[in-house]
Amino acid sequence: MALLGSLSLGLALSAHAQERTPAEADATTASTDKAKNLDSVVVTARSGVETRTKAETSYSITTIDEDRLRMQAPTSVTEAMKSVPGFWVEASGGEASGNIRARGIPVDGFGSVNLLEDGIPVQHDPALGYLNADQAFRLDETIERIEVVRGGPSSVFYSNAPAGAINFIPRRVGDTPDGLVKYTVGDYGLQRADFWYGTPVGNGWKLGVGGFYRKDDGIRDPGFDANDGGQIRLNLAKDFEHGRFSVDLKHMDDKVALYLGIPMRTYPNGKIKAVPGFDGNFGTMAGPETEHVLMKQGNGSLYNFDNSVGTHVKRDQLTLKFDHDLGAGWKLAESMRYSDTKTQRNGVFPNSLMSADKFLTQAKQFQPAGAAGLQLRYVDNPAQVFDNKNQNGNGLVVIGGLRGVTMPVQEFINDTRLLRKFDLGGQSHDVTFGYYYAHFNQDFSRYSSTALLDVRDNARLLDLVAVDAAGQPLGTLTDHGIYRYGYEWENASGSSATHAFYLSDEWQATDALRIDGGVRWERVNTKGWVEQKQTVNLGTLATSQIQTGTGQTVSYDHSFSKPGWTLGANWQFSERSGVFARWTSAFRLPNLSSYITNATATPIIQTMKLGEVGYKYSERQLDLYATAFYTKYDNVGFSNYVFNPNNNTSVAQQGYASTKTKGLELEGTWFPTRWFDVQLTATWQDPQYEGLRYTDKSSTGPILRDYTGNQLIRVPKLSYRVVPGVNLLDGQLRLQLAYEHEGERYVDTANSVRLPSYDVWSASARYDVSPAFSVYLYADNLTNSLGLTEGNPRAGELQSADAGANTFIARPLLGRSYRAAVMYRF
């Protein structure tokens, strides 16, 4: 759970002399410093010559130290954010491609928060369509701690961070050699090894190296390796008399499964479970029959769809940092990063779910002359006729999309800051002037085909077969389970260049009062081309409507610019208590994703206003943060893509609206005794749409849809997480239980499809066998909760086509899993 400052998960232990494990030593330190925990230094979303502590910050920040990380043991970037209030976290899709919605901003993926590594964006824009920043980053033991800023001045210091910034801070090598190795196993075939080692290497230089490798079947086992790969990092740094230089090189080669929605049903008692024949906790539609498919293209070539790849990222990243004291009070801070990322993202998307009878009725339009009817038969066993009433206990079929996306990106980021502190009239000012530049090239290609699938774990392919009056096959209309080749096709390329200037001032007006403000002006230029599409007919049902390229392209070249600002104040009226307030005018400029499938798109700048007022308190038994926040989000574009099973196309509806959210965040820890503690994070908010109106078409004429006042999609009004823990055997054993509650949410802006509230229980334990050797145990989702994190986006997010249906597609939490780890420190 989110704590105030870098608190060790070990609790206060007696300080009498005895040999202690590293964890016990940390716990003793935490006990000693508990009344001072707001003195932890903050490095995210600020800049200055002097350091600033948590007590002095005028915005909401959560720090997650390495002990908390090890006890929580998140399996993904988004999973790690579950202990941050104000964030709605959706990590049911696997280790990458998660969703974070911050303070009610209705943007998927990482569209409202930026992901940083050592204070530099992992990628300039963390929400590049099919390339979210969490796909290009993996959490391992080279990371020491995480700082998470919600709102605040993040939008002044970073691009594309209107609602906050998540900063993963790597370890620094000390003056003596040290390291660790960690090995983790899980009941889903998990085998994972992490390591880190740091040592001085002479002449003031320090070397650090670390990384991980893991392989597993996946909690939702597709019948082949779900996750396979790892990364390695090499860091070389030196502290000079007047500065510091570091070079960091990281290579990642990792593939992870993309978990998508599964068939669910609402039963007469009101409970929502997977349909009969499907395991809601551990099942997935993906399976061996859709692992490798050669898909025909409009030019006669074949597209190799390989779902065992999942989301495969190969990334090389080089980071240089240089800090130098220029004299006369001036300092220079330089950061730059170059990355080359190659991403292949394949998945089996459940576009549409229906009964076999309904599908065959719709397919009658394709019945050839002379045929008496249509049947579904299995591709791997053509003699087996699909039981329309009760096959697999459900008689359902899915029109699945076999989608392959290729996205190579080369990016360069540079951030230069000139800093100076000076006194004026008995008061001090800590001023930063910064210049930020980012340039990246991106290619994009996509090819997708629809397949007929039965509804069961590891779904099997079905063929649509024409039969005579006796039920004997006359011919197969589909092609080895493929219903339509090429229902999606894209080919595009572009580049983006961003220039930003920013200025900040931290004004220490009195010993207790500090006022800070900042302004940022940013300009982005996007240019590129999109190849035009055409539909070709190669003579069969499966090849009758293949989208392919024309060889002709449409170019675009557009620039956007916008200023933003922030103003905040912090009044630390006692050593243990303080209040802060802040108002921010932020924005998000269009990116290449705005044009990647439509060169003539007309995107608009998204603007927002964010306010917060907070209270902080820290003493030996209680740490507490309480923050009231307000978010007004303007010019939000809504693309309502509805998949039409009749013609295998996705129809887009575009709308713009605003949102308004008022809320309250709580986070804190209570230490009633040295052996027991309780951590709490909670968020209450009222997230509403404003001005969301559009005219819909119907058979009776136009209909005005008005969703003003409706609850934002996927965002709950109430969520909280409680983590009680005990320290036994003088701190040698730590036991921890986590309870999470998420309130009800909605699939669509019409609020026509409800996602019920749900609860999740997890547990973890740490036992220090010796000062150097520790054992960890983890149990996630102990009760096999089937909490639904999202519905079916392909059914439409303005008004879902699943409205009123008792059988639908949705994505629940991953099922119960167990892990065990051993760690040796040296």
Describe the structure concisely.
By secondary structure, the chain is mainly β.
Percent of sequence in beta strands: over 45%
CATH superfamily descriptor: TonB-dependent receptor, beta-barrel domain
Number of domains: 1
Low-pLDDT sequence parts = 1-37
Coarse morphology: globular
Average of the residue pLDDT scores: 89
Q: What is the SS-derived class?
A: mainly beta
* Biggest pleated-sheet summary: 22 strands, antiparallel, barrel
* Strand count: 47
Domain TonB-dependent receptor-like beta-barrel: 300-782
Membrane topology: Multi-pass membrane protein
GO cellular component, one term: cell outer membrane
Signal peptide: 1-17
